[in-house]
Queue: 2 jobs
Job 1
Amino acid sequence: VSSYAWRIKEADGAWVTTTEGVSLIDLTNSKGSVLLGHRDPDVVDRVCALVRAGLSGWRVEDLIEKVTARILARVPEYDQVAFFKTGTAAVKGAVHGFRRTTGKPLVVSAGYHGWDPLWQSPTAPFTLNEHGVFDCYYVADELESFLQRQAGQTACAILAPDFVNLPADTLIRLFSICRDHGVPVVADEVKFGLRLGPGPSIYNLGLHADAVVFSKGMANGFPLACVAGRGEVLDEVRHCISTLTFEAVALAASDATLEKLARVTAEAGIAREGGRFLSGASGIFAASRLPIRMQGTGAIFQFVCGDSALEESFYQACAAAGLLLYEKDNQTPSWQFKEAVVESALERLAKAVDQLTGELPHLVGAAIPAEAWWAAAWNQMDGFCDPDADPQARRAFLTEQLAAG
Ligand SMILES: Cc1ncc(COP(=O)(O)O)c(C=O)c1O
């Protein structure tokens, strides 16, 4: 019962309805792109008015200026914004900007940055891929030893923060290693930016980057992404345009979305109400004694199952109970996931877990092995989550993941 298997007819607030008339509570929200909830009236009105005015596809300077100003208000340390249609394109634009201005060919990376040949896996862990990218998989020692050898050839580090499976110390350490080696950092905030705070999620750790990328949540499901930064790097990034870079529909959606997110302090509401769900769900799992636990925060979290058969049954039972989940990945509630919806989601989860205890009684009381957590984190962040893991076991795990593609 993959989330793609549902045929959705309509969506409203935190709910979706399938073509067969089934109502589900949506914890996927278009992979985290819909922050305000479905069919947000302010966004719908702005978009419809613009389309009726015949402006779809147009470049409307007013809108570009307004959205630029709204982004810069969230990242006052920067003075320029470059727009893109996808997170993948925006991150690539940032890479281009730093490569062009530094003249250096290599890039270090941690995390997922989109499906693009640039990010192709290397043949072995901790080696360069054929496009000059070194993925450290969030392993600080490996980043350190790569930069000791190659900092002079490295244009920038593209680091995707993670607040679901990664200890905060690890992220802080990765940033400081790059700083110590004089390597500029781009925070890929596509997933966590705007969701964990009004700006980049790294601000929550007191971290700053040389540029940030935003995308999910910027336009409540309409296609828009951006790089914010400064100076000649951003001049280069802004050259990466395509036919519809400035089309007005997504910019109008973004203008309405960013205004409303600030007005209703959406991220605080999402964190609070999601947090209620997280603690209720953790209680349900603890009471059941099934090996399932929650990782993350109220605004974005993941279910970690200690057994693969249990994992499959878990998603099936949740689907049958009326919860739309992003299978094996992170769940991203919207601002409309609140009050009675949270209660209803917890009731649905309790029903699913009840069913599982009946179906899989031999798993009651079982532990969650570290490898199950590693695998869940890998699915969620394309990296290695456990700084205390034995280096040999870590390498074996990563080799296995890379071989599996
Ligand atoms: C951290 C991060 N960067 C980049 C991307 C790619 O963004 P898009 O799918 O919009 O191209 C994603 C997508 O999930 C992401 O999570």
Note: DSSP finds 13 helices and 13 strands in the chain.
Job 2
Amino acid sequence: MDHNVVEPHGQVAQQSLQQAGYQVAATTLTADEKHKTLAAAESLYRAMLEARLERRSPAIALGGGIVGDIAGYAAATYLRGVPLIHAPTTLLAMVDASIGGKTGVNFPLPGSNDLGKNLVGAFWQPKIVLADPNVLSTLATRELACGLAECVKHAVIADAQLLEWIAQHARKVLNREVKALSPLIERSAAIKAAAVAEDERETGRRALLNLGHTFAHAVESVAELDTRHGEAVALGLRAAAHVAMSTARQSQTDADRILHALEACGLPARLAHPVRADRLMRAMAFDKKVAGGRVRLVLPRGIGAAEIVDDIPANLVGEAWQAIGASA
Ligand SMILES: NC(=O)c1ccc[n+]([C@@H]2O[C@H](COP(=O)([O-])OP(=O)(O)OC[C@H]3O[C@@H](n4cnc5c(N)ncnc54)[C@H](O)[C@@H]3O)[C@@H](O)[C@H]2O)c1
């Protein structure tokens, strides 16, 4: 489990499993990207061996996306795979990371100490995903906003009504009102699940879930910007809306709807510092979605639909970067 959820959620979960007659062996992981490594997965293998876990003993990942990804990878590989249960404790993990079966850890890039994100991993579907919105009572507001960014992304791809709903109810979500959190988690998770069900290995429709992510990964690669993934996604959604508008895929009104929803979620509208656009464009070229040297972008088409394109002129991408605060 996540080191930040041991108290009170981890203890409650452990006691209720024991009361129901299960034997529980628990171990904690440090939830940050630096510790999302093979060493962390190894520590889980050791704990599973010590607890004598067998092929049919389930592993439960209680935590945010980092713990879910590491524990999921350990479950996929320990004894060639044991059943996995995700019990996500962040909004982002509830609506996104726990669904779809992607697991993995970061791994050092060749000739460098920098960790490449999720370079080692496996597809391993959970048997159960158990999302209890009450555990979000202890989650920081900044983390809640990050989860909302992925919900906005799902809405832009698949559900115009959800976008309006988010713009109206974001305040209640940020106040951790379960009455607002429950329907949001249900709808947003369903959109992700539907995309995955159609295309588990990301050869087609699932790739639309990368909306905003080519921009986002470039933002995340600039360490001094210190941007959380969800915040980078929010900036990426703004940039993608800008490109969609300048290529007549989206009206100004639709683009404004996206920006308005992101604003209501308290997500950043501009880079924390004005990084040069050409530096960010170089980082984009290293994205996993580059094919044949051309940057592939997922762009909205109106609201509720999106498409993959690889023919956007560099000057329009540069303008989109400037629209979110990059310098020329
Ligand atoms: N597998 C996938 O499909 C997928 C999809 C999206 C993201 N991810 C991965 O997920 C990770 C990000 O996940 P995240 O946004 O959940 O962040 P996270 O796991 O880093 O959690 C954020 C912070 O909140 C803390 N925390 C978690 N639950 C808490 C709670 N209930 N109360 C108080 N604190 C709590 C954590 O300890 C951590 O400090 C990234 O590594 C990303 O690569 C995976």
Note: The longest strand covers residues 115-123.
